[in-house]
Design brief:
This protein is an alpha/beta fold. The chain contains ten helices and ten strands. The chain has a single domain, classed as 3-Layer(aba) Sandwich (Rossmann fold), CATH 3.40.50.300. The longest helix is centred in the last third of the chain and has 18 residues. Bound molecules: adenosine-5'-diphosphate and magnesium ion.
Length: 257
């Protein structure tokens, strides 16, 4: 469904040059949930932004469903690929009702049945019709992120790119939203690429996980390897220890990578 091959992104010039993504490659099968994990600044969002078309200063190749992507995306691309961002406060227009927010993509893509689509997708993300005419500030963080998920789903994409979709939420709400995302993926047979700095989140959600550090792929592992601890790279083992919570003794032994 998605093939990323030797993807590179360089920001800035001269002394400010930052090779933020270096020769990143991975394959995501149809219906799979693929994770990108790594510390802050490791290049995860940059990779997603290249796939989604937000960034165009990349080189290498990206294929969706066998078709290579160019730097500029046709409008039909957004029927196939949608993105959910970390910050549900920043990604929803503060002066638009949920109804208006959800109808915008319907209008842009000239689809019919706007009211029905809005109601259906709201119920799919667990929000009743009473939420339709509310504004973002009248919703909790978890509810706002559900709206962001609904907006991504309304065009019925096949691939959803999720950039830290629960990192801005309280821990108790995080699990609810993650479980909802799992359910939706199963029901719609979606393909996910999920970015998180938290190995616990990706190991809960993903079949295959690419570990990134400083713009490079450290290793690509599967769920079983995480459970059995059969990891090749010490960086990945360290990330696994870190994801288990605060442990003074373990942290004292951490290396710099
Ligand atoms: N638009 C941009 N312009 C310049 N540098 C950027 C831009 N976006 C990201 N970077 C840099 O690229 C690197 C990777 O960032 P990012 O992909 O956001 O990491 P992550 O999502 O893993 O935290 C960082 O050094 C960041 O400062
Ligand atoms: Mg990021």
């Amino acid at each position: 469904m998605l093939k990323v091959d030797n993807l590179n992104v360089v920001f800035g010039h001269g002394a400010d040059k930052n090779h933020a993504v270096k020769e990143v490659s991975f394959l995501v099968n149809r219906g799979e949930s693929f994770g990108l994990v790594g510390e802050s600044g490791s290049g995860k969002s940059t990779v997603l932004n290249c796939i989604s078309g937000l960034l165009s200063n990349w080189y290498g190749s990206i294929e969706v469903d066998g078709a290579p992507l160019s730097h500029k995306r046709p409008i039909s691309f957004y029927h196939k690929v949608q993105m959910v961002f970390q910050d549900p406060y920043g990604s929803l227009h503060p002066r638009h009702t949920i109804d208006a927010t959800l109808k915008e993509p319907i209008a842009i893509h000239k689809l019919g049945d706007a009211n029905q689509r809005v109601e259906r997708v709201l119920s799919e993300v667990g929000l009743g019709p009473q939420f339709r005419f509310r504004y973002p500030h009248q919703l909790s963080g978890g509810q706002r992120q559900r709206v962001a998920v609904a907006r991504a789903l309304i065009l019925e994409p096949e691939i959803v790119l999720l950039d830290e979709p629960t990192s801005a939420l309280d821990v108790s709400i995080q699990a609810e939203v993650l479980n909802l995302l799992q359910e939706i993926r199963r029901e719609r047979s979606l393909t996910y690429v999920l970015v998180s700095h938290d190995l616990a989140v990706v190991s809960h959600m993903c079949d295959t996980i690419s570990v990134m550090n400083q713009g490079e792929t450290v290793e690509i592992i599967n769920r079983e390897q995480l459970q059995t601890g059969e990891l090749k790279e010490s960086y990945t083992r360290q990330l696994l220890v870190a994801s288990r919570g605060y442990d003074r003794q373990a942290i004292d032994q951490f290396q710099d990578f």
